Amino acid sequence: MEIKHILEAQQFNRDWLENELFPDTEKMREVADSGGSNLLKGRRVITFFYEPSTRTRASFEIATKLLGGDVIFSTENAKEFSSAARGESIEDTVRVLCGFGPHAIVLRSDEEGMAKRAADYSSVPIINAGDGTGQHPTQALLDIYTIKKELGEVDGIEIAMVGDLARGRTVRSLSYLLGKFSGVKIYFVSPEVARMRDDIKDYLRKHNVEFTESHDLREVASKVDVVYQTRTQKERGNLLERYENIPGFYIVNKEVLGLMKERSIVMHPLPRNSEISPEVDPDPRAAYFRQAQNGLYVHMALLHYVTSS
Hints:
Number of strands: 9
Number of domains: 2
Strand content: 5-15%
C-alpha cells in the first residue's frame, strides 16, 4: 500500500494496519528502548501547529530525534507566531516551508480540511496531526494499536465512545478505522446536543458496523471492552456545559469501573479535564497513559514510513 500523505483514517486498509503498522510499531518500541537509531539520519522534519499541543507535538519531535533525524523548524501557535497572523494562506505557507528542504511536515490546524489543502500544494509528505473538528488520523492509528496491544484483538470488540462526539475529531477517525474490522459494535454515549455526526453513522452503516446511541454511560459500561472517553471541546464552544459534571452519565469514576468487565480498558486521547476521575488512575484498566506512550512508537513508525517511501 503506497502512502505519501497521512490525511484521514479511511485511507488505510486492514492489511496495512496488521502487516505493516502493528509490527513496525513493535520494532520502534525496541528501537526507543535501546536508545534510538539512525533510520532518519539526514532526514528533516517540520512541526507546524496552529493549535496548542503537548503529546502530539512532543511525540513527533522526540520520535524524529530518536530515529536520528532533525526537527528543523517548530511552532505551536502558528496563528499568532507565524505569517498566518498577517493573513498568509496555508497554500502559500506550505510552499514556503517546502522550500526549506524538509522530508515531512507534521501539521495541526483549527480548520477542518486544511491538511488536505496543504497536501495539494506540498512537495513532501503532510502528516495530519488534527484538523479542527475533522480528523486526527495519527491518534486513531495509535488508538487502534493500543486496543490490539491491550486486548489482543480488534475483531468483535464492543466500544463506548463518550462525550463531545459532534466535534471530537479523535472519535471520528477511530470510527473510520474500526470499520475495517469485523464484529465491532460501537455505543455512542452523549447528550442529544453532542451526538455523533451523520457522516460517520452513514459510513458505519455502509460498512455494516453495528452502532447504537445512549445518553448514560452506566447503561452500557458492563457490555463494553473499551470505554473511549473524550473531553469537552471548549475551544470550539462548550456544548456540554450542562452535562459535563454529572457523575456516571458522561464521567468515568469508581461507579462506572465497578460496572465494567475485569478485562476491559479505559482510553482517552488526553488532555483530560473532569471526565475521568483521578480515582480511576491506579486501576489496571486505566490505559490512557500507556496509550499516550504508544503514540511515540506509532509516530516513529509513521515518520520512517513516509520519509523512506
